[in-house]
Structure formats: structure tokens, C-alpha cells
Known about the structure:
The protein is α/β, with parallel strands linked by helices. Helix content is 32%, strand content 20%. It contains 4 helices and 6 strands; from the N terminus they run E-E-H-E-H-E-H-E-H-E. It has a 6-stranded parallel sheet with strand order 1-6-2-5-3-4, with helices on both faces. The chain is globular.
Amino acid sequence: MVATYDNQNAIASKYILTFGYGNRKNYDEFFSYLEEFNVVCVVDVRLHPRAWSRKWYGEIIKKSCSEKNIKYVSKASLGNTSGNSNWIPPNDEEAAIALQEISEIAQTGTILLLCAEKKSYCCHRAEVALHLQKLVNNEIKHLG
């Protein structure tokens, strides 16, 4: 089951959330979602956890998440080499291992897959979420 966030209050459940920071200048919406859904881990699925704005560099996000007691992991092996929304990981075996590792975290609570593309339907994270869902059966929510 795939859902789009509809501004209703989140219930106490385990989700696979997806979020693209796009050209956002701050973390307001990002951290609002982390709090609302009680996210236990942010999984950065960018091939290179960098951005035009240093605010969205992986190490800076990791520090900000840590200050809020939220785990951050970068999984470049879940990145995309296709140049479009069709997910082609850099290495299939490493991607399978990373999916298994993330599925174990997802069994403990809600996770959020982070990438750059603001629109989930234009980003490989939607496909990564579907692969994770097969492992843990958590509902997917694409956040704006």
C-alpha cells in the first residue's frame, strides 16, 4: 500500500516515509515530519550525500538528527546511477545488504528515506521504499 501524506494526524504505527528536500532553505518541514511520525531513523539514499546547500550535507543532517535523538545513516549503496527515477543501484549485492539492514531498523519504528528530488514520483526513493516494504510490510507515505 502506497499513500501520499494527507495532512491528517499520524497514528502510532510504523511507516516507511519518503522525503525530498528539493530547494528548501531550512529544516522546518523536515523536522516537523520527524516529530509527527516519531521517526527512529533517517536513511539518506543519495549516492553522494551532498547538496548545493551545505545544510543538506549528510554530516550536517546527521548532527542535527543526533541532537533530536534520531539516528541518521547514509546508504550510498541505495543511491541511484540511472540519472532518473528508475532505480539502478551502484552495486546490486551491496544494495540488497543495505535493504536488509534498513529493514531491521524499520521493524523497530518509522524510518524516513531522504533524497534530493522534491517530488517522490520523480525520485528513485519511491522504488527503494517499495523494496523495503516487501521486507517489512510497513505502509509507505510520501511526504511533501
